Amino acid sequence: MPAPVSGGTRSAAIADRLDTIARVDSPEQVRFEYRVAGPARRAMAYLVDLLIKATVVLGLGLLLLLGGVDYDALSGWTLGVLAVVGFAMEWGYNVMFESLTSGRTPGKRAMRLRVVKEGGHPINFMDALVRNLLRAADFLPSAYALGAVVMSLDPRFRRLGDLVAGTMVVVEERSHIGDPVRLVPPPSPRELALIPGSARLDAHEREALELLVRRLGRLSPARADELAALVLPRFADRLPPGAAEHPARGLAVLYLRATGRGKEPRSP
Predict the structure, then answer these.
(1) Domain map of the chain by residue range?
(2) Contact in structure between 206 and 32 (CB atoms under 8 Å)
(3) Is the pLDDT of residue 109 over 50?
(4) How high is the pLDDT of residue 6?
(5) Are the C-beta atoms of 38 and 157 separated by less than 8 Å?
(6) Is 37 exposed, middle or buried (0-12, 13-18, 19+ CB in 10 A)?
(7) Nearest 5 degrees, angle CA 152-CA 158-CA 159?
(8) pTM score, two decimals?
(9) What DSSP state is assigned to residue 122?
């Protein structure tokens, strides 16, 4: 017999179900948070893309008429051309834009949405191809009914194509785009000089350290050092001796030095 669920446990479960924040742990043990796009916002993006695709096909038909093609001829080879263009727009439009523009079609861009991997990484061509080919299954039996049911049951609102391709659609927060990365107080020339000039960061390390630096102003010094100490061993070979005394600041200076955002130390 299943154990009874207390009110607190039930409330926590409901809160987790309604939470639209996807939390992803990077290999550096730093947690990224993404706001998952809900069905309504994704439907609006789909309608924008549908309007663009319909405009292209109808515009091509209008150009053929204006170009002197007889109306009766539209029942012949021109209908075949329009059918090919319509097929390419329906199946190639999403794949092309999502693979070439980092997971954004014009509709998704308008609604500030982006397709990413479940680990938060950009998608590639195969990811875009798989998730869009399975839109045919999501459409069953009509009007994306199956896709809507699957999305409503998934905590990250993923349809079948997303589940198979390992992707999800997230909302891009404008307020965080382009914010300068600062360290208070700024790194001194001596601190920068202690970081080896050959220190380099790969893409994942850069993302992890940038997230840490951006959060320093919202954390107490003790909490910041506690979090930084978890990933400090990975960067130990690029940090000066004694960095463990203030790991958060040491990692922040490493990030600024390696990305060229700190002032270059002057030669003595």
Answers:
(1) 36-175, 189-257
(2) no
(3) yes
(4) 43
(5) yes
(6) buried
(7) 85
(8) 0.57
(9) B
